[in-house]
Design brief:
Number of domains: 3
CATH class of the largest domain: Alpha Beta
Oligomer: single chain
Structural class: alpha/beta
CATH topology of the largest domain: Rossmann fold
Shape: globular
Radius of gyration: 21 Å
Number of strands: 15
CATH superfamily of the largest domain: NadA-like
CATH architecture of the largest domain: 3-Layer(aba) Sandwich
Strand order of the largest sheet: 5-4-6-7
Strand content: 5-15%
Distance between the termini: 57 Å
Amino acid sequence: MQGCVARRVVRRGIGKDVRMSSTNVLELPLTASGMTPRVVDPTLDLEDEIRRLKRQLNAVILAHYYQESDIQDVADFVGDSLGLSQEAAKTKADAIVFCGVHFMAETAKILNPGKRVLLPDLDAGCSLADRCPPETFARWLKQYPEHTVISYINCSAAVKALSDVICTSSNAVDIVRSVPKDRPIVFAPDRHLGRWVMKQTGRDMVLWPGFCVVHEQFSQRRIARLKAEHPDALLIAHPECEESVLTLADHVGSTSSLLQFVRTSPAKAFIVATEAGILHPMRRARPDAKLIPAEPSSGCNCALCPYMRLNTLEKVYLCMRDGRPEIDVPEPTRTDALRAVRRMLDVSAGKVFVGGD
């Protein structure tokens, strides 16, 4: 078992800069954030060590569906952004190890200011969050003073603090429908999700022009070709995809919705237009089904989020062993963002949101 683990550690090194030292220890290179190199003993059974550290820290490990399969397998809870937020809000653990990207760990810290929140790689960001700088967003919002501001959870804590309510792809339709019809709405930062929600609700909204670098790579032409090659396969797509792709889909929904559709559908084949990490729980739920990853325009045969893939099992172990990187959200940003996040959770729990302060 240990030999197998040692081989896996070396194979999963982060690129050509990984090397073995004279003491037979795996050396990890300096990160873009400037963190000092940290080392992993290649003879360790990482899964056992992670379980040991979890007990020692009284920690809970939360992982998004887009994480690599080994990380999903060691997590206490695997889910989409809404499910992860709900788990973070109710956890009794002293520490949260968030295997996802930066805005997800920030959300956990917003909900749990007294708990340690660890992120395996501090460089695990998000193209949507990066394309919506809070200073620029604040200036842009001045054009829409009477609007209710709904922000997709894929944004920074500072953008959440500028928002009236947060949403995820699971509950965006419900959040928009909860706003009185006489209140105009700003929706940020994903224009494709916003446009899809407009079609579902019949509500006009002002859209911030952001997009996800993974989902925007799916093209109507490639999807149509896949459907022709697999005529019995159902196309399932995330609403962050372009509208031209969504019009071809048999089912559109969040990652949890896509997984549930595969789990319950009588179909035997599915074309999956979202990040390839979701294929792992889909295969476990439907080992009899043929899962066909949609091809991105990059030419790769699978769609992988470069930010999500920065996290590795080695980095999960290291962040728990060393207690870093640790996420912090300063006041009053955290308190302002908490108001918007709590409103989202309240609407998801069936409570009424009246559309702004």
